[in-house]
């Protein structure tokens, strides 16, 4: 035989089989027997333990079919068979089909209660393959079933509820075989490796597709044999197609050469097609297959359901690119019309989402012994077709591919937003640790729980790490409230994730926080752990925090509150309440040793000192990250508000604060020229001090660091530009109108806190305060600001009070124009117009932008850039103008 003649043999064989099938009609039994006669000597089934030809298998099936019919005389009574991936099970399945009795497939791994439910619901007689082989022979022929007779009862997996029996006709399975030919290209010369248990709907589908298309079925029991030898067996058997679930594919290929992307293997030489079904499949599945076993063949994503049979096929030849994300279901299966309908039952335009409705002659006949449910989901059409409402969401894209988007009843409202768990599950799957992922919705609570299966041999992330990673791909309201990390998922006997058996997330008792320190810490924990609420007594580790998260949190404490706590100290009291005690004690200890005045030495050295004023509500120590990065070895002194750490009445105006600063500065450096820097609110103080000294004939080199205008001051300066006076003498510095302000805000150098006094703050800031509480907080804050410095308050509240005070002083400030030049070092996010500063510094303003925002520019890693800009500005301004004029101000307040 020539090579050309050899090449056309499969086509001749397929053409012959097509004629055989057409002559046999629309029953799976008739087509199977006709194909078996045509392929008599070919191997029908091969396992690692043996093989059987089509002729041998057909003879056994017909003989045992007659025996079953005699043993179960009621044609409507189902026969349940426990099936394995072996020749005896295949023979038993075909024998029941030949008997004309409905077949029920039982999985040997079924739990007893589930098996009992299936047997009770179906009313089936249970016969094992061995019992079927032992039945006495029966010579009576069996009437051939009709196309509309029930061939198989497929019981749903029950992963979200009790299993239901779905009745499929003889005609339906002949159409499934047609899908095998049209989409998978199954032909008589194929050797199809079925890696799905035959008790699965998809496993039985593979059996029908393979045998009615005359191919050889290769059976490997993936649950009883090691997957380590599977590749070699498929290679020896020259498998041309393989069929699995995505979960099995990942588990089988995860340890294969090339799986990690480091290189590619040669693949399986004869494998032309690899199909997956039963679960959602992702682009990573295609890439994994291509790197390991499918070097030249086609990847097939194949979807369906117990009620519809095959639904759609999506083929990825080697040269087709794969878009990241879940794979589309693809092209509708043979003989099935798929519609996407809205709430009114009408078709929606392409691209819009709606319920998937399937219309076909080849759908299930309904639910076994459940007329109400059948009437609710199945509608008989006048043309002989059936319409099935799937309850699934989907849409068609512009290419005509069907996309599956989850169940209609899966969607959940989280904080008013509609969330599809499938989208969140996709985000979990993209994480570097993910082997598998699942998301469960609690509609009553409006919460999601994310489950992540990881390989413990590589790395098991803490829940806090998972939440942090999800922030890159999900909006905050879509992130699961709970994260549970597992080494593997519980699965049903069909390999699907058994959601009912997933462990619940740990129960949490959320005790409201007490006071501003706990409120501030709870807000920090929420950020570090990716939560929206934390109780005062919850354990950091139990919430998903690991050592890395603890280190980040303690580093934040050091940056924001200038307290250096060790991990050992935190480990002894790993709760918000315990940490608040440590934080307040540390601040109390520092306050007791703090200098009595407003000035403290931040760096020793020689030469002209730098006087550096901190922002509102910040101690001078908050400037240390920048001071440490300043080039040179000159001394640096920090200034902070009077009364911030030691009891003392706070200054009631920026001018009063400037006068106090001058007295402190002259005690260190009696005469100029001076070098001044001021951060935020401190910039106003130092610029006012420079103006006062200028009036006394002194020179000052002034650098402002992200000093921001309050709207009231900006408006007043704008009015002054049009002719109104800017400066004034009405401000005596002795009175301060009580501010009407928000009760929360960002403290310069501190944190966002709820500024409540008594009663204690309840909640973490995620809860909305009642109108009464908000009014109480406003009144309490007005009182605390009016008496700032006279009372010793917890550090976080004390800093918030002084931050409020600083903002109020800026709002009412009537600055004295400074005739010298200044440099403004502004963060990238600074919104102020530099021209406004020319009204305060009439000698000229040079603006320099540095990386970071208002807060981060003063902390690592941006502090180094800010320090370099300060140093450069001071060096450039050494030629500041000589001051002239009389001493306008006395040293008395």
Automatic annotation (TrEMBL):
<dbReference type="InterPro" id="IPR000873">
    <property type="entry name" value="AMP-dep_synth/lig_dom"/>
</dbReference>
<dbReference type="Pfam" id="PF00975">
    <property type="entry name" value="Thioesterase"/>
</dbReference>
<dbReference type="InterPro" id="IPR001031">
    <property type="entry name" value="Thioesterase"/>
</dbReference>
<dbReference type="Pfam" id="PF00501">
    <property type="entry name" value="AMP-binding"/>
</dbReference>
<dbReference type="InterPro" id="IPR025110">
    <property type="entry name" value="AMP-bd_C"/>
</dbReference>
<dbReference type="InterPro" id="IPR036736">
    <property type="entry name" value="ACP-like_sf"/>
</dbReference>
<dbReference type="InterPro" id="IPR045851">
    <property type="entry name" value="AMP-bd_C_sf"/>
</dbReference>
<protein>
    <recommendedName>
        <fullName>Carrier domain-containing protein</fullName>
    </recommendedName>
</protein>
<feature type="compositionally biased region" description="Low complexity">
    <location>
        <begin position="725"/>
        <end position="736"/>
    </location>
</feature>
<feature type="domain" description="Carrier">
    <location>
        <begin position="512"/>
        <end position="587"/>
    </location>
</feature>
<dbReference type="InterPro" id="IPR029058">
    <property type="entry name" value="AB_hydrolase_fold"/>
</dbReference>
<dbReference type="InterPro" id="IPR042099">
    <property type="entry name" value="ANL_N_sf"/>
</dbReference>
<dbReference type="Pfam" id="PF00550">
    <property type="entry name" value="PP-binding"/>
</dbReference>
<feature type="region of interest" description="Disordered">
    <location>
        <begin position="724"/>
        <end position="745"/>
    </location>
</feature>
<dbReference type="Pfam" id="PF13193">
    <property type="entry name" value="AMP-binding_C"/>
</dbReference>
<dbReference type="InterPro" id="IPR006162">
    <property type="entry name" value="Ppantetheine_attach_site"/>
</dbReference>
<keyword id="KW-0596">Phosphopantetheine</keyword>
<keyword id="KW-0597">Phosphoprotein</keyword>
<dbReference type="InterPro" id="IPR020845">
    <property type="entry name" value="AMP-binding_CS"/>
</dbReference>
<dbReference type="InterPro" id="IPR009081">
    <property type="entry name" value="PP-bd_ACP"/>
</dbReference>
């Amino acid at each position: 035989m020539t090579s050309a003649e050899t090449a056309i043999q499969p086509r001749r064989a397929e053409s012959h089989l097509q004629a055989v099938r057409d002559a046999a009609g629309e029953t799976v039994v008739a087509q199977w027997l006709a194909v078996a006669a045509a392929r008599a000597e070919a191997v029908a089934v091969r396992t690692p333990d043996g093989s059987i030809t089509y002729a041998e298998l057909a003879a056994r099936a017909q003989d045992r079919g007659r025996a079953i019919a005699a043993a179960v005389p009621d044609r409507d009574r189902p026969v349940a068979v426990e099936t394995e991936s072996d020749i005896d099970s295949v023979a038993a399945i075909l024998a029941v089909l030949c008997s004309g009795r409905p077949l029920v497939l039982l999985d040997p791994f079924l739990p007893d209660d589930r098996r009992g439910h299936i047997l009770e619901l179906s009313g089936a007689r249970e016969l094992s393959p061995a019992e079927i082989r032992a039945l006495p022979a029966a010579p009576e022929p069996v009437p051939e079933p009709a196309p509309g007779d029930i061939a198989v009862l497929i019981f749903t997996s029950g992963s979200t509820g009790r299993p239901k029996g779905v009745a499929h006709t003889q005609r339906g399975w002949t159409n499934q075989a047609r899908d095998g030919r049209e989409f998978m290209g199954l032909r008589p010369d194929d050797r199809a490796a079925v890696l799905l248990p035959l008790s699965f709907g998809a496993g039985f589908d593979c059996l029908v597709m393979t045998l009615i298309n005359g191919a050889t079925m290769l059976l490997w029991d993936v649950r009883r044999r090691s997957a380590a030898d599977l590749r070699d067996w498929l290679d020896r058997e020259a498998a041309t197609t393989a069929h699995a679930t995505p979960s099995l594919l990942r588990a089988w290929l995860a340890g294969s050469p090339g799986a990690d992307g480091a290189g590619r293997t040669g693949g399986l030489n004869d494998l032309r097609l690899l199909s997956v079904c039963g679960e959602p499949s992702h682009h990573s599945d295609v890439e994994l297959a291509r790197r390991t076993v499918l070097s030249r063949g086609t990847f097939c994503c194949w979807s369906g359901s117990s009620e519809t049979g095959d639904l759609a096929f999506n083929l990825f030849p080697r040269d087709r690119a794969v878009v990241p994300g879940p794979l589309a279901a693809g092209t509708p299966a043979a003989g099935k019309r798929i519609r996407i309908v809205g709430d009114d039952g009408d078709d929606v335009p392409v691209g819009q989402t709606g319920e998937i409705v399937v219309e076909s002659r080849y759908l299930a006949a309904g639910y076994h012994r459940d007329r109400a449910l059948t009437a609710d989901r199945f509608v008989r059409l006048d043309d002989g077709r059936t319409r099935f409402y799937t309850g699934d969401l989907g849409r068609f894209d512009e290419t005509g591919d069907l996309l599956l988007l989850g169940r209609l009843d899966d969607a959940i409202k989280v904080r008013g937003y509609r969330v599809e768990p499938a989208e969140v599950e996709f985000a979990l799957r993209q994480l570097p640790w993910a082997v598998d992922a699942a998301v469960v919705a609690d509609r009553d609570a409006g919460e999601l729980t994310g489950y992540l299966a990881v390989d413990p041999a590589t790395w098991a992330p803490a829940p806090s790490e998972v939440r942090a990673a999800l922030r890159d791909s999900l909006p905050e309201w879509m992130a699961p409230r709970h994260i549970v990390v597992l080494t593997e998922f519980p699965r049903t006997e069909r390999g699907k994730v058994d959601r009912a058996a997933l462990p619940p997330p740990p129960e949490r008792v959320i005790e409201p926080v007490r006071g501003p320190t706990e409120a501030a810490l709870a807000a920090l924990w929420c950020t570090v752990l990716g939560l929206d609420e934390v109780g005062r007594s919850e354990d950091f580790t139990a919430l998903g925090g690991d050592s890395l998260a603890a280190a980040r949190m303690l580093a934040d404490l050091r940056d924001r509150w200038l307290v250096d706590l060790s991990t050992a100290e935190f480990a002894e009291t790993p709760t918000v309440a315990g940490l608040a005690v440590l934080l307040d004690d540390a601040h109390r200890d520092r306050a007791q040793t703090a200098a009595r005045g407003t000035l403290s030495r931040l760096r020793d050295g020689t030469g002209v000192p730098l006087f550096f004023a901190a922002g509102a509500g910040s101690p001078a120590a908050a400037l240390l990250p920048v001071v440490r990065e300043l080039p040179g070895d000159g001394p640096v002194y920090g200034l902070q508000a009077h009364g911030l750490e030691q009891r003392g009445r706070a200054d009631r105006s920026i001018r009063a604060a400037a006068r106090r600063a001058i007295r402190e500065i002259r005690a260190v450096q009696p005469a100029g020229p001076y070098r001044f820097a001021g951060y935020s609110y401190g910039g106003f103080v130092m610029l006012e001090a420079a103006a006062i000294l200028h009036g006394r004939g002194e020179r000052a080199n002034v650098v402002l660091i992200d000093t921001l205008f309050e709207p009231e001051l900006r408006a007043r300066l704008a009015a002054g530009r049009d002719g109104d006076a800017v400066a004034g003498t009405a401000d005596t510095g002795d009175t301060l109108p009580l501010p009407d302000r928000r009760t929360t805000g960002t403290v310069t150098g501190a944190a966002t806190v709820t500024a409540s006094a008594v009663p204690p703050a309840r909640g973490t800031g995620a809860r909305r305060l009642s109108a009464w509480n908000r009014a109480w907080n406003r009144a309490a804050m007005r009182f605390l600001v009016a008496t700032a410095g006279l009372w010793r308050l917890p550090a976080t509240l004390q800093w918030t009070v002084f931050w409020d005070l600083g903002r109020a002083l800026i709002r009412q400030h009537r600055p004295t124009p400074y005739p010298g030049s200044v440099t403004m070092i502004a963060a990238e996010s600074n919104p102020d117009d530099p021209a406004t500063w020319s009204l305060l510094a009439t000698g000229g303003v040079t603006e320099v932008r540095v990386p970071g925002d208002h807060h981060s520019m003063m902390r690592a890693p941006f502090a180094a850039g800010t320090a370099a800009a300060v140093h450069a500005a001071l060096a450039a301004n050494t030629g500041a103008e000589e001051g002239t004029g009389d001493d306008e101000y006395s040293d008395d307040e």
